[in-house]
Amino acid sequence: MSIRYLIILIAISFIIPACENSSEVNVELPYQEFTVIYAQLSAGKIFDGVTITHTLPLGSQYDIRKTEITNAVAYILVDGAQVVPLHYVVNGLYKPLTSFVIEEGKTYELFAEIGSKSIYSKTTVPAVPNVLDVVNANNEYLSADVNANPGEAYGAVWIIPEGGESSLKADDFHSIETAVHFPSHLLIRTKDIPAPYNTPAYSGYLNIQVYAFDEAYKDYFLTKTAGNPINNTFTSGGGKVSWNVYGENVIGLFIGLAEGSVIHP
């Protein structure tokens, strides 16, 4: 499952009532609109832009034409020196007039204004992860020994080729890990490999890919299911999701990452 899809799911959670049996309990739930920001800054890849949308009232059917924000004034500041203005394109997407490649080690800051609302976020793009060794744990999962850097967090997914360019891929990370002391090695594992691929017959097809993130992604990963946001309203349950975008009634991610190579144990 991609980060973008997770953000959409959590944003949609605002429009799902907390009471499933509405025929027995008729309660008017308060609605608070939130601005939703999403951008993935991948090292070595062309910047895809920033998506700026808003949540919908309870009971509304999701429609990007109803959620997109088209009047934002936004720009990105690169390493405190280069200003990159962003312009609305379509479906809430804002992009620069000329494409540019995201570079590892650089810091990117997002500034946006929507009417009187100000939005800010900051992320540093990590280096491509340095994987020292990979291990197949009896076809149950795969793990990787990673050389960890300060300010970075790491996760891994299993990948199984299906032929041609098609492949199966884990829908999420097992965990997101950070180191405390440096230099340091981290052991990163994937989610469990599902049947029937967790057998010796498929061991020759199991691959692993390690991702490095700005360490802010770890806080998001640890809290993204707080309060069961996909099944209930955002504020129900045990806590709130930790976002790295700031502003009044703003949620979302503006996150730097770097994809490692696909490796066979």
Q: What would the keywords be for this entry?
A:
15 strands, 2 domains, 265 residues, globular, mainly beta, three-stranded antiparallel beta sheet, 3 helices, twelve-stranded mixed beta sheet
Structural summary, described in words:
It is a single chain. This protein is mainly beta. It folds into two domains: 3-17 and 30-125 and 223-257, no CATH class; 130-215. It contains three helices and 15 strands. The protein has helices at 3-12, 64-67, 216-223; strands at 35-42, 50-54, 73-78, 82-90, 93-95, 107-114, 117-124, 130-137, 141-148, 152-163, 166-169, 184-189, 207-214, 245-246, 250-263. The strands form two sheets. The protein has a twelve-stranded mixed sheet, with helices on one face. Strands 8-9-12 form a three-stranded antiparallel sheet, with no helix packed on it. β6 and β7 (117-124) form a beta hairpin. The protein is globular. The model is unreliable at 12-27 and 227-238 (pLDDT under 50).
